[in-house]
Each structure stands twice: as C-alpha cells, then as structure tokens.
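SEVERITY: medium
COMPONENT: batch folding queue
REPORTER: lab tech (J.R.)

DESCRIPTION
The queue accepted two submissions in a row. Attaching both inputs and their returned structure tokens so the on-call engineer can compare them side by side.

ATTACHMENT 1
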Amino acid sequence: MANAALTEPAAGKRHSIGGDTFRILGGNADTGDGFTAIEYTGLPDVPGPPLHVHHTFDEAWYVLEGEVEFTLPEGARLAGPGAYVAIPRGVPHTFQVRGQSPARWVGLFSPGRYVQLLVDLGPAIPADGPPDFQRVAQVFAAYDTEILAG
C-alpha cells in the first residue's frame, strides 16, 4: 500500500530544461500504474519541444499563470489560467509559452515513471548553450516517444 504524502510549497526536487524549470511534487508512481505531478515554469517565446507523440503514457496540464500555446491535431490552442489540456498517449503535440511573462502550470504523467523523460532531457538542453539534438532524440526514444518534426 502506498503512503499518503504532502509536498510543502518550497519542497520537491527541482530540475531544469534550458531556461525552463520544474519541480516534482510527488505522486504514486511506485505503485506501478500511478501518476507523478510536477509544477512547470516556462519562459516566453522560447521554442518548446519538437512535435512528438508518447506511445506508452498519458499527460495532462492545468495552467496556473501565463499563456501556453499547445499544438494538437486540431491546431494551435492558447491555454490561459484555469485551462486544462489532456493529452492521451498516441496524440501528437508540442507547446510554447506565449506573451511577455513566464507561464506556470501543473503537469500529470501516468504512469508516473515517465516524468523521468523530463529529468533526463535537462542535461541535453543546457540553459547556457545549444541543445544536443542527438541526445534529445535518444532520451525521447528511451521513453517510447517519437519525434515527428524538428
């Protein structure tokens, strides 16, 4: 049986991907089919990930602050505070923060172990240098994620 958990506002392991940051809030990924929740802060008008599709996990996002443009099969959709975006496995997508200020949103990954994809992307996309595109492709492939466009 999994234990209940509370993550305080300043707690949670912090990571970065380029200039963006996220902290792992927690979840129940250790139970197998659980989830992991993160809080993500993205910088405006910085390119997001390439268009991609996850083949073995689902993700969902709830926007807290700012504006995030999600590119989905239906086209580009601007999501502001209070918007919820569900992206089941098999659905092509990407995102980019729009506007003049950073955006902050909560993400859920199910199964939760797939949040490790974001953790592993950090070293491939440093804040102070160009991305290592070969390493990015390797990380995506390791987590059953296919890059559809560069």
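ATTACHMENT 2
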Amino acid sequence: MSMSDAAIRQNVENELAWEPSLRGCRIGVTVDAGVVSLVGTVGHYADRYKAEEVAKRVAGVRALANELEVKIPIPGERSDADIASAAANALKWNVSLSPFEIKVIVTKGWLTLSGQVNFGYQKMLAEGAVRFILGVRGITNEITVKPAVKAEDVKKKIEAAFMRQAHLDAKDIEVGILHDTVTLKGHVHSWREKDDAAQAAWNAPGIAHVDNQLFVEYS
C-alpha cells in the first residue's frame, strides 16, 4: 500500500527532529507524489548534506530536492585562507588520498577541488574529507579520474559487484557506460539499495561520474 504525502512529510519531519546533529536547524518539508523538497536555512554545509541523508532513509520517499541554503553564523565564519589550509591538511592526512596532488581553491567559503585520482570513489572521498570543515558553504568537485582500459570490462566488473551483494537484485539494474560515466537504470527497493548500487559503480576503475537514475519502488 502506497503512503500518502502527508504521512511521508510527517515521517521526514520526525526523522529530521530525531537526528541530534540537526537539532536547532530550521528545515521545512514539502511532499508531492512522494517527491520530497527540503527548504529553509542551515548553519553549515555539513548540515545540508546530513539533512539529505536523513530524508532519504524514510520509507516512501521516491525522490529528493535539497533546496536548503547555507547561512553560516558569525562564530563559525572563517577566512578563505583558513578554510584552504584546513582542507589541504584533511586531504594530505587521508591515507587513501595522500599519494595524489589534489588542489584546493576557496572563494568566499566555496571550495573547488581539482587534480587526478585512480578511482571514482577517491574523487568522492576527497569531497567527503572537506565536507565537515567549519566555514564551508559549498563544494565543486572537478577532480578527474584516470581513464580505464575498456568500458565493457568495467561494465562486467560493476555487474559482478552487484551479484556479490545479496540485497541488490542485479537483474533489475541496467548498467550503461559512455566514456567515464556510468548510468544506472531500473528499480530498487530502498534508498539504501540505490546508494549502494551507486557506490559499487564508483568503485570501478576509470569511472568519474555516476548518473544514478534508479527508481525506488517500495514493496
């Protein structure tokens, strides 16, 4: 039985209120045909990311629009130089990223990352390493991934990864590859499965972008 928009909205609001790290944030929730929109302001970029993660774990949510605006309170404001230094250290001391030369540019609290890594998951790891730095307002990830050898080999590796994960129904997921981009189509039974499928694709060599078009179809 499908859940009403009113019930989904109430559950998302309750889940956001239940999350300790978001207490004090002013987040509004609207729902239309299972599509959730988050509106309002938060004090840190990490709060914006966390609110999205919280909303995605609520049953009935088919899609999500994160329209939260980051307004950093005065005590949390930092100079671009301070943020750049903290970001450079976070990347330098991450064992999975230390071999790579990743550059950081900060403009009015907005970070731009550039450089090259071997795997797509390392690109996402770099973004995660700087996401929780105080004073960050947003992130643009321009890191490139070293090209893979053959797209068809990468496709087979991703499909094999799906088969190894018991909770992912590989027959319901279609994998397409064009250059360094993976497109996932089909349906899964939860946002967790959707995210796990994307993560499996990110782990493949040479993948720089994952276009996750999987539809969440609740039982």
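NOTES FROM REPORTER
The mean pLDDT is 89.
No errors were logged for either attachment.
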